[in-house]
Design a protein that fits this description.
The protein is mostly helical and about 425 residues long. It contains 17 helices and three strands.
Length: about 425
């Protein structure tokens, strides 16, 4: 089949998505500027300050986006495995040659410049998963493709966990949603969610109480299915797995990084008496609540201005939004992210190639999880696990990583009539 000719490398670019991205970059920089504002260093182009450095990240991010639009879209499915392999090597290398930052050995440092390979593993894993699942012979109804798909996601996840970057590792697990879109039974997704719920419940409630409850439910299932042998074996197997999870949960939890244990413990109420560990969450709620309906105004946030909120320019950047822009501004930002996610899903569904569609859903899944967890933890709905708000939080690696993740898909979409495999 002859490919349709295009008059420009920028033909068919979805400028709505590009414009949304640019708006987020601008708003994100404004919030970083406000979060770390220093009256003694008010100059926007002061590159010794974090808002000055963020301008460098934004500028280089725009350059990266431009380069990705120039590269032919066929590059990504062709070199997907190579990109994935290079990313995995970098995850291993950083454990030996990286520098430890905040208890996590996950950074390559070059003077004042730092790169975190885990941020780039997100788009690399999306590419590899899309490459594998887009094979015409792959059927998610079969066991082998499921196991290989899980392995593609789990391998970088384990490497990142070894770097003690639990937050980044958990993000990759959300790619399971892509498998669900491609035919993975919903029952397996519900099973995974149930196991996760049981794990955390085992940290709060007595083990024997949970065993008795689960055992009673298993017995009821066997009785109401008339004691069929196959049902009995399946239920018994499931019950044994449940028992293993219940009695191993506390032991596994003890091996979590110390800061993650503190955050999850505070959220679950098993460390509620230690007020110093609740500081982040409490100050976050105060900052957002003090913004009221319309906010205090740009640079007028007292909670953030006087550094009451830790990590207010990174993990807790949404506190600045809530305090200075109020409910109206917060709703606008959430709406902007919702619009971007809906737009990406719309673009993914119109793709002619399975590779582009699968990758698009990977992009949507990762961005959705970041937004959900980051905003959720600032309002104390979700445990604090320390992941950035896309295009808003301070940091070069995350901004570059999200930009590459998004613009690969924008390029794939622009050549959707040409990529037929």
């Amino acid at each position: 089949m002859r490919r349709p000719e295009t008059t420009s490398i920028f033909s068919n670019i979805d400028w709505i998505t590009v414009l949304t991205w640019l708006v987020m970059l601008i708003l994100g920089w404004c919030n970083v500027y406000s979060a770390v504002y220093d009256e003694d260093h008010p100059a926007i182009l002061d590159f010794s300050q974090k808002y000055g450095k963020q301008l460098i990240w934004i500028g280089t991010g725009i350059l990266i986006a431009f380069l990705l639009l120039i590269i032919d879209a066929e590059f990504h499915p062709t070199f997907a495995w190579i990109i994935y392999g290079v990313s995995m090597v970098s995850l291993v290398a950083v454990m030996f040659f990286g520098r430890e930052v905040a208890g996590s050995k996950s950074w390559f440092r070059f003077g004042d410049f730092g790169i975190q390979p885990a941020e780039f593993a997100k788009f690399a894993t999306c590419l590899a998963l899309a490459k594998y699942l887009s094979d015409i012979n792959i059927k998610m109804s079969e066991t082998k493709p499921r196991l290989i798909s899980f392995a593609i996601v789990i391998f970088p996840t384990l490497l990142i966990i070894l770097e003690k970057e639990t937050g980044c590792a958990i993000v990759l697990l959300v790619l399971i949603l892509v498998l669900y879109r491609e035919g993975l039974p919903g029952s397996l997704l519900l099973l995974a969610m149930g196991m996760a719920f049981l794990f955390f419940a085992s940290l709060v409630y007595p083990s024997m109480t949970l065993v008795i409850i689960c055992g009673s439910l298993a017995l009821l299932v066997i009785i109401f299915t008339r004691k069929r042998l196959r049902t009995f074996i399946n239920v018994l197997t499931a019950f044994l797995v449940v028992v293993c999870i219940i009695f191993s949960a506390k032991m596994v939890f003890e091996h979590f990084p110390a800061h993650q244990k503190k955050r999850i413990g505070v959220y679950l109420g098993i460390e509620s008496g230690k007020k110093d560990k609740e500081w982040n969450e409490n100050e976050s709620i105060i900052a957002i609540g003090s913004g009221g309906f319309a906010g205090k105004g740009f640079l007028q946030g007292t909670q953030t201005k006087y550094d009451f909120v830790p990590a207010q320019e990174t993990d807790f950047i949404f506190c600045t939004v809530g305090e200075e822009w109020g409910w109206l501004g917060s709703t606008f930002i959430v709406g902007l992210f919702a619009f971007l996610l809906i737009r990406i899903i719309f673009l993914a569904e119109r793709q002619r190639s399975a590779f582009s569609r699968i990758y698009g859903y990977g992009v949507a899944s990762i961005l959705f999880f970041h937004v959900l967890v980051n905003i959720g933890m600032t309002v104390r709905l979700i445990p604090v696990i320390g992941i950035p708000l896309p295009f808003f939080s301070y940091g070069g690696s995350s901004l570059w990583g999200f930009t590459i993740l998004l613009f690969i898909f924008i390029k794939l979409d622009s050549q959707r009539l040409m990529i037929l495999r």
